[in-house]
TrEMBL record:
One of its GO terms (biological process) is response to antibiotic. It comes from the Bacteria. Pfam families: Beta-barrel_RND (PF25944), BSH_RND (PF25917), HH_MFP_RND (PF25876), RND-MFP_C (PF25967). Belongs to the membrane fusion protein (MFP) (TC 8.A.1) family. Residues 210-295 form the Multidrug resistance protein MdtA-like beta-barrel domain. InterPro entries: MdtA-like_b-barrel (IPR058626), MdtA-like_BSH (IPR058625), MdtA-like_C (IPR058627), MdtA-like_HH (IPR058624), RND_pump_MFP (IPR006143). This is Membrane fusion protein, multidrug efflux system. It comes from Tropicimonas isoalkanivorans.
Amino acid sequence: MPSHRIVSCRARIALALAILSLASGALAQQGGTPPPPAVTVVTVESSDVTLTRLLPGRVSASAMAEVRPQVNGLITERLFEEGRPVEEGSPLYRIDAASYAAQEAAANASLAQAQAQMQQAEREVERMKTLLERRVTSQQEYDDAVAARDVAAAAVKVAEANLLASEIDLDRATIRAPISGIAGLSEATKGALVTAGQATPLTVIRTIDPVNVDVTQSSAEMLRWRRASGTIAAGGPGDTVLTLKLADGSTYEHTGRLSAAEPHVNQQTGVILLRLEFPNPEQLLLPGMYVQVEVPQAVVANAVLVPQEGVTRDRRGRPMAMIVTSDNVVEARQITIERDRGNQWVVTEGLDSGDRVIVAGLQKIAPGQQVSPEERVDAETGDAGQPGAGQPAAGQSEAAQPAADQAEAGQADATQPADGQTDAAQADAAQAGAAQPADGQAQDDPANDATVATD
């Protein structure tokens, strides 16, 4: 027999013995008890939970005035800066007032004439009265003098009214700000002809500190909150604190209040309009902005906040949570969820204060199984057991679904064969891992190289 054939046979025998030795060691380890799987838990606490709702809304000015001329004429001067604050009563435009000044002068002259005529009529009444006492004139002539005096007095009042109207028109030739606020862009320039009550405003003034935020809420949703069970209490506007979410996702630093609500439901949309008021000293909020308002709507008594990654669904779609008992044994609990709050569920039934809810490692456990729990630690604060401190890995909830399904179907006893299969798989992996170094050694052995070359 050639020498290289002998070397090849010896190498194969050595490789087979190494595999058998590793396999026997793995089989010996298979008979031992595997350590309980490690899971991450969060200890929950019951408390009164305020339910909030994000409602979309638009910012509007708390006061707005469209400035229009009240007299006709040519604009001779603009007296304000566009986009700058103006005070109530400050002049904005001047209109050519020559014709209105002439009307005022004519009204003054008419008033003087009427007053002179009234004085003459009063003297005539006094004269007729004296003649009547002397029986020199008739009663008819005296009555005519009194009537003429009354007509003259009425003419004086008409002249006074005409004078007042001319003075008003002359004053309106200077257009003033009706409210305090921020003046917008000017729609008219010097030399423009304007008319009283024209459709196009000269400018618009808006008061933006404070501002209003109008939001809408479904009437059905409001009824649902108000008709909820006794564990839910509707929040009142007196102690309501409202926060604002801006379009870029940031939170507005000032809180607002509910100032008014429409007392009726829109028949077309079925919503109720709520008007909120927010201070705006930095003028960060501008009319027309889209915002979201976090509005407290109800309070749930003795509720438990559970991270969403700790809740799965059974085959019937019912929410379930896996609990670690005091003996470190997994227990499946059916729970009742009121609604979500951020990345947490508001649970009203099924959990008690102090329960340890599994939030990581659900894919490795089943009800009735012994586990090794570890409290989750908030990476920012270092506190343990803070709900929502961490996020599940992608697909973790999906991986936990079979365990919840087993809890629903009463298949907790089926976990032992699964464990046995897992141990067998570990033994196969150990054998496969042991074969790798042997292969590597065989490749490094010159005898093996020779065998390969011969084959």
